[in-house]
Automatic annotation (TrEMBL):
This is Peptide deformylase. It comes from the Eukaryota. It catalyses: N-terminal N-formyl-L-methionyl-[peptide] + H2O = N-terminal L-methionyl-[peptide] + formate. It comes from Chenopodium quinoa (Quinoa). Its EC number is 3.5.1.88.
Length: 281
C-alpha cells in the first residue's frame, strides 16, 4: 500500500536502494519536491517517486553495453557496483489481470520451499525499495495469497503529529502472512486517503474498518494471528483486498479520486469528512 510518509526516500539507506528500481532518485533531490502541504489537515505526501527524475530510470544492470552517463553517475553517487546488483520483480500496475482476479491459497507444505521463500524475500525487498508499507504477491505478478507489511518508527516520525494521531498510526515490525483471513472486530470505521503502488500517482478516500483480526500462516508455516487497529488495520484490509482481486479504486468514495498533486485541494461538496466515524451495525 502506498501510504508513504513524507521524506520517506530520505530514510532509505543508500545501500537499500534498488539500482533496478524505476524510481531511482537521490534522497537529496527528493527533498525539494516534497513540501509539506498546509491546507489539508491530513495530507499524504505525493509519491516522491513520481516527481521529476534527475537520472535515467534505466536499470543499472541493463544489458546495454554503454550505459548513459546519467545512469553511470547515479550508480557512482549511490556507491553501487553492477556485480552486486540483483534484479527484483517489477511492480505490476493496474490493468494487469493478475491484480483483478482472486489469488490462490498457498499449500502450507510448500511454504518452506525455495520457491515460496524467494517470493516472500522479493516481496519484502520490493516493498522496501518502492517504498511502501504493504505489498501483496499479485503486485509482483504472483497470484498467491501472501502479503507483507511493515511501518517503521522512523518512517512515521516524518509525518505530521496531527496526521499520525488522526490515523492512529503506530510502528510495527515486518509481518509476513500467508493465506490471510481477515475479519472485522468492530463496526468502527475511518475515512482517509490511501494510495497503491500499483496505481501510483493517485489517491482516493477509502472507508476502512478500524479494528480487524487477521489469521494465517507466517513465513515458516506457523499459525499467526494479528489483532490490528488504526492504520495497521487499514494496511491489512488494503493488502487482503489485493488477494481478492480488488484495488482501492474499486471501493473508494465517489468523487475523491485525484492525482497526488491535487491531494490538498478540498473535497467535493457532499463528500464525508476525513477521520473516524461510526457506522450503524
Ligand atoms: Zn495496493
Amino acid at each position: 500500500m502506498e501510504v508513504l510518509p513524507r521524506f520517506s526516500n530520505r530514510l532509505l539507506s543508500l545501500s537499500s536502494i534498488n539500482p533496478n528500481s524505476k524510481s531511482l532518485i537521490t534522497p537529496f533531490f527528493h527533498l525539494q519536491f516534497c513540501q509539506l502541504p498546509t491546507s489539508n489537515p491530513l495530507p499524504i505526501c505525493p509519491n516522491p517517486l513520481k516527481t521529476t527524475r534527475f537520472f535515467s530510470t534505466k536499470p543499472l544492470n541493463s544489458s546495454s553495453s554503454s550505459p548513459s552517463p546519467l545512469t553511470t553517475r547515479a550508480g557512482w553517487l549511490l556507491g553501487l557496483r553492477e556485480k552486486n546488483q540483483q534484479k527484483l520483480p517489477d511492480l505490476v500496475k493496474a490493468g494487469d489481470p493478475v491484480l483483478h482476479e482472486p489469488a490462490r491459497e498457498v499449500d502450507p507444505n510448500e511454504i518452506g520451499s525455495e520457491k515460496i521463500q524467494k517470493i516472500i524475500d522479493d516481496m519484502i525487498k520490493v516493498m522496501r525499495v518502492a517504498p511502501g508499507v504493504g505489498l501483496a504477491a499479485p503486485q509482483i505478478g504472483i497470484p498467491l495469497k501472501i502479503i507483507v507489511l511493515e511501518d517503521t518508527k522512523e518512517f512515521i516520525s516524518y509525518a505530521p503529529k496531527e496526521e499520525i494521531k488522526a490515523q492512529d498510526r503506530r510502528p510495527f515490525d515486518l509481518l509476513v502472512i500467508v493465506n490471510p483471513v481477515l475479519k472485522k472486530k468492530s463496526n468502527r470505521t475511518a475515512l482517509f486517503f490511501e494510495g497503491c503502488l500499483s496505481v501510483d500517482g493517485y489517491r482516493a478516500v477509502v472507508e476502512r474498518y478500524l479494528d480487524v483480526e487477521v489469521k494465517g500462516l507466517d513465513q515458516y508455516g506457523q499459525p499467526i494471528k494479528v489483532d490490528a487497529s488504526g492504520w495497521q488495520a487499514r494496511i491489512l484490509q488494503h493488502e487482503c483486498d489485493h488477494l481478492e482481486g480488488t484495488l482501492y479504486v474499486d471501493k473508494m468514495m465517489p468523487r475523491t479520486f485525484r492525482t497526488v498533486e491535487n491531494l490538498d485541494l478540498p473535497l467535493a461538496v457532499g463528500c464525508p469528512k476525513l477521520g473516524a466515524r461510526k457506522i450503524s451495525s
